[in-house]
Design goal:
By secondary structure, the protein is an all-alpha fold. It is built from 11 helices and no strands. The protein is elongated, with a radius of gyration of 23 Å.
């Protein structure tokens, strides 16, 4: 979304919330447009408009939506349905059941997020050799908690503007290089 398109979004907000924007100086409005344009630079204006209108339609407090709320609504409108922690665990449980001789194949079938949490095919095999009560209670609980936290973290990362993602990537690469120097 460019600056001009951001002006269209701001016009929608000013129309829906005239009292909120009534005393806004041109400088403050220009700063708001600049910030919104930067935060939504990677997003299609039609999708941002749909998210803003959806938030306006469900608003009961009388305040315009903030950037984070619009980003969250965008994710809800555009992201595929997220698997629940229980659904993710069921995939892992099936993989555990078949991991005796096929741990690598079962691990490779898992979605990327679940593979990151499981860690390795050998982890599936290790869980498969554990007492089933422990796997169904302790391991299941820990996995589901980790899945929920990681899914939330991934969703929040995806909402970041691309320039912020690039900066974070560069910082983490530099950190990884420094860590490698000390090893």
């Amino acid at each position: 979304m460019n600056r001009q398109e951001t002006g269209v979004i701001m016009d929608i907000l000013k129309t829906a919330y005239p009292r909120y924007y009534a005393g806004m100086t041109p400088d403050v409005l220009r700063n708001a447009i600049n910030l919104w344009a930067e935060m939504f630079a990677d997003d299609d204006v039609r999708l941002v408009a749909a998210a803003v209108k959806a938030l306006i339609a469900t608003d009961s407090k009388g305040f315009p939506p903030h950037i984070g709320a619009v980003k969250e609504k965008l994710r809800q409108l555009t992201a595929p349905e997220q698997m629940t922690p229980a659904e993710a665990w069921n995939l892992v449980l099936k993989a555990i059941g078949r991991s005796g001789y096929q741990a690598r194949e079962e691990f490779d079938k898992l979605p990327p997020l679940i593979r990151r949490l499981v860690g390795s095919p050998s982890q599936l095999r290790d869980w498969g050799m554990m007492d089933s009560t422990t796997v169904q209670s302790v391991v299941a609980s820990n996995f589901q908690r980790s899945y929920q936290a990681r899914a939330k973290q991934d969703a929040e990362y995806q909402a970041l503007p691309s320039d912020v993602k690039q900066m974070l990537s560069a910082v983490s690469e530099r950190f990884a290089l420094k860590e490698g120097d000390h090893g």
